[in-house]
Structures are given as structure tokens and as C-alpha cells.
Amino acid sequence: MGFEEILRNVAYTIARFMAFSAHAFLFGAPVVILLVLRPAFRDAAHERWDEGRARVARRLEGLTASALISSAVATAVAIALQATLVAELDEGDLATPSFLSVFSTTFGQWHLFRYPLLAGLFVLLSSKVEQWSLRPGGGASRVWWGGWLGLSLALLATSSFTGHAAVSSPRALGLVNDIVHLGAASVWFAGIVILAVLLPDAWRGRDDLTSLELLGPSVVRFSKVALISITTVAVTGTINSLLNVAKFADLWRSPYGLSLSTKIALFLGVLALGGVNHLVLRERLRRGTNAGRARSAQRTFRVTIATELVIAVLIMAMTGWLVGQSKTRQTMLPPGPPVTTGRD
């Protein structure tokens, strides 16, 4: 493998990591807002948390905009990388015919399809996330929430239609299972990002005991959502493995299997941390009725959520790398790019 090919594979992995992370946040964020943040702020004293709610809403707006930009850039990079590969195989220069060749494949068409979806999300969400997402007592209509969820789910599906699931057998099962897998993982990923990065802004400048008014309900609610998400990820991930791995020994004898094994090991770390959050942290938050216990609960929360965030990022990175590996259970390939670098 030459230096140029190594560089291209690394660039593909980074592009896929950016796209997976962006799409996961875009789909998971509204679920976490509706099931965790809004009820948690509602349970807390409204007037006391108005300023904190506004800060979190502004950060949500900024992170959503960043996800839209990241997806657009990552998609453009993936298309450009595929076009350079076409030009290299044709022994020509990178020019319009190379891009047209990519756009004639399912890979190019599904990647191009992301742009109208991103445009729709931009129109739908621009300046509205801050205004509506955490507004007490109402805000956006069900149509707005449904549009956000629908368009972002379609973005997630573009990864399934250009990855291993598209060449699974049976194909319909592979695609549906993979979309459910990505959706469940997205809810967990977005929840970790929101609790670790955004929610602490709500209690900035407040004492530990006061912060438990919001932290407690948030962690309790998210632990329930995460339990469902992680269980779904485990079941659908097992099905994906059966569809993509020919035999058990491939898990340590093939590049795809080693990548999958690493991802599974990271996932087991998530399960361990989830157990701490569900069984230990929830109880500490429930009993945190004095300053000492509140401080201990805050400390436990910061350590576990930071660790879980690091693992979440590593899982996203490993997913980006895994998609570029050839699975060991081979099936007939659909029409696609002239080479398999970057997808099956």
C-alpha cells in the first residue's frame, strides 16, 4: 500500500467520522430534547432556570449549525476523494468527467442526496432551535419536530445505503436493521454530547446543591432512554455481525473482524459506564440532599460522562474506519464506484 493510498484511506475515515457524528447528533438531539431536557427543565423551578435554559438553547443552536456544516463538508470531501480515485484509475487529471463518473454510481447519488436534506434542515432549524426547542409550555409544532426527525433520519439512511448494509443478504433486512442500529446509537451519542458539553451551562455559577434540581432529573431520564438505546444497539449490532462476518474466527483474523472486535470492546465499556450511571449515580443524585453528597454526585457525573464521551468519539471513529474494511461474508456488489476503497 503506497503513501497516497494510505493518505486517502485516512481522509476517507475522517470524512466518514465527521458525517457519522454530524448525522447522529442531528437525529439524536430532538429525541433527547423531547424526552430528557424539556421534562427536566419542567420539573425544575421555571423562573430559577430561565437563564440556564436560554444558554443551553443557544448552545444547541450552535451545535446544530456545526453539524449541518460538518455533514456538507464531509460529503464534499468523500465525493472529491472518490473522484480522484477515478481519475487515477483512468490515468487522467481530476476533472468534470471524474465527478460525473462518481455521480453515476449509487455511492455518488446517495451522497448528492444529502444536500437537499441538509438544505431542508437548514431552512427548518436555522434560528428556530434556540427559539423553540426549550421554550417552556410549548414552542414548536409537531410538524416542526416531525420534519427535524424525518429529514435527519433520511441523512442517517444515506450511510446505510452506501455501506455494508447495502450489500448484505437479505438486503432489506440488512438495510432496515442498520438504520435502526444507527438511529438507536444516535440517540445515545447525542445524549452524551448534550449532557457532557451543553447541560453544565445551565447551572454555571450555581452551587452543587442547586444544580441537582436539574442534573438529577436529567440523568434519571437519560439513563432510561440510554438503556433502551443501548439494548437496541446490542441487538441490531449482533444481527449486523451475523450478516457481515462469515465465521467467528474472522473477528481476530481479518482487518474487518479486528475493527469490529475493537468496536465491541468499546461498547462493553459503554455498558459498564451505563451500569454505573443507572445503578450508582441515579441513587447518589436521589440522595444528594446536602452539600457534601451533592458535590460527590457532581464529581461522579463529571467523571462518568467525560469517559463516556471519549468512548463515544472513539466508537464514531472506529465506525468510520470499519466501513472502509471489506467484510468477510461476501455478497454480490450493486453498481457502485469502480473500486471498493471507502465502501463495499
Descriptive overview:
78% of the residues lie in helices and 0% in strands. The radius of gyration is 21 Å and the shape is globular. 41% of the residues are buried. The protein has helices at residues 3-43, 50-89, 96-103, 106-125, 128-132, 142-161, 171-198, 208-244, 250-253, 255-287, 291-323. With 344 residues, it is mainly α.
The number of helical runs is 11
pLDDT averaged over residues: 83
The unreliable regions are 331-344
What oligomerization state is this entry in?
A: single chain
Content-based structural category: mainly alpha
Q: Please state roughly what percent of the residues sit in beta strands, choosing from under 5%, 5-15%, 15-25%, 25-35%, 35-45% or over 45%.
A: under 5%
DSSP summary, beta strand count: 0
Terminal-residue CA separation = 18 Å
Rg (C-alpha, Å): 21 Å
Overall, the morphology is globular
Write the layout of secondary structure elements.
Elements: H1 3-43, H2 50-89, H3 96-103, H4 106-125, H5 128-132, H6 142-161, H7 171-198, H8 208-244, H9 250-253, H10 255-287, H11 291-323
Entry summary:
The chain contains 11 helices and no strands. The chain has 344 residues and is mainly α. The longest helix is centred in the first third of the chain and has 41 residues, at 3-43.
Which descriptors would you attach to this protein?
78% helix, mainly alpha, 344 residues, disordered C terminus
